[in-house]
């Protein structure tokens, strides 16, 4: 059992929790994730680590309430417990000292981008971060990203804060204005990561994305998280989640991510109607 120590809402339907998990906190590295199960009847689902404190034995998770499990977790309070948290899982991000690196976070993906930005800055890289959301009230972790970056660019789709437009557009502006990035790391919605990959491709800039396919066990046994990278099948849980963005088959990934949408909507509807079969 893992007790929730801190809980707060940081944007519409986006929750921030700190959870007691000393064994995970002791080994966590930037880019890794955990698999959670709320209770005996719950499904297993992944969340990328946002932060961790080895001394206090706690980890930080940020999640968007988008399905039954995340909505149920969003209803838990400080002092409540999560039954299972397995991790840290996945390969850590490759952190090295670059003269100039760009970290791009879209939506709730900013939570996963934060520890990567921090790790690069601690390694001595100059970090330029770009974070974006649909509107100003959906932006998250601005202060933390600013602290982890030498420069921070903010974008909103509607122009309610920062630059109006997408993070990929802001990235292109920076490149065209003379920012010679040695690497770009992007985390967020799949369509956003694809746009970033296509933005950097003509410039031949090393670009890494953290993929979020359907995942069950998180240990390479079920094969649910398979993705095609460079024409070969890879498992996001054990081979990733970081991959070369210019080699990822994003079209296949998006098709696989949407294949259970009807079932997910049906289960969520049952849950909202109070039907226990949605658990």
Keywords:
alpha/beta, Elongation Factor Tu (Ef-tu), domain 3, 279 residues, Rossmann fold, globular, five-stranded antiparallel sheet
Q: How would you concisely characterize the structure shown here?
A:
This protein has helices at residues 22-27, 68-74, 110-122, 142-147, 167-176, 190-200, 250-257, 261-272; strands at 2-11, 14-20, 33-37, 45-48, 51-53, 58-64, 81-82, 84-89, 101-106, 127-133, 151-156, 163-164, 183-187, 206-210, 226-229, 232-235, 242-244. The protein has 279 residues and is of the alpha/beta class. The longest helix is centred in the middle third of the chain and has 13 residues, at 110-122.
Secondary structure layout:
Blueprint: E1 2-11, E2 14-20, H1 22-27, E3 33-37, E4 45-48, E5 51-53, E6 58-64, H2 68-74, E7 81-82, E8 84-89, E9 101-106, H3 110-122, E10 127-133, H4 142-147, E11 151-156, E12 163-164, H5 167-176, E13 183-187, H6 190-200, E14 206-210, E15 226-229, E16 232-235, E17 242-244, H7 250-257, H8 261-272
Parallel strand pairs: 9-10, 9-13, 10-11, 11-12, 13-14
Antiparallel strand pairs: 1-2, 1-7, 2-6, 3-4, 3-8, 5-6, 14-17, 15-16
Helix pairs in contact: 5-6
Q: Give the strand order, joined by hyphens, for the main sheet.
A: 12-11-10-9-13-14-17
Q: For the record, what is the CATH homologous superfamily label of the largest domain?
A: Nucleotide-binding domain of ferredoxin-NADP reductase (FNR) module
Q: What's the mean pLDDT score?
A: 94
Reading off the top of the CATH hierarchy, the class of the largest domain is best stated as Alpha Beta
CATH architecture of the largest domain: 3-Layer(aba) Sandwich
- Rounded radius of gyration (Å): 18 Å
Give the overall shape, derived from the CA principal axes. globular
The unreliable regions are none
- Helix and strand content put the structural class at alpha/beta
Distance between the termini: 19 Å
H/E element string?
A: EEHEEEEHEEEHEHEEHEHEEEEHH
* Domain module tally: 2
Q: Describe the sheet with the most strands.
A: 7 strands, mixed
The fold-level CATH name of the largest domain is: Rossmann fold
Strand content: 25-35%
**Beta-strand segment tally:** 17
Give the proportion of residues in helices.
Answer: 25-40%
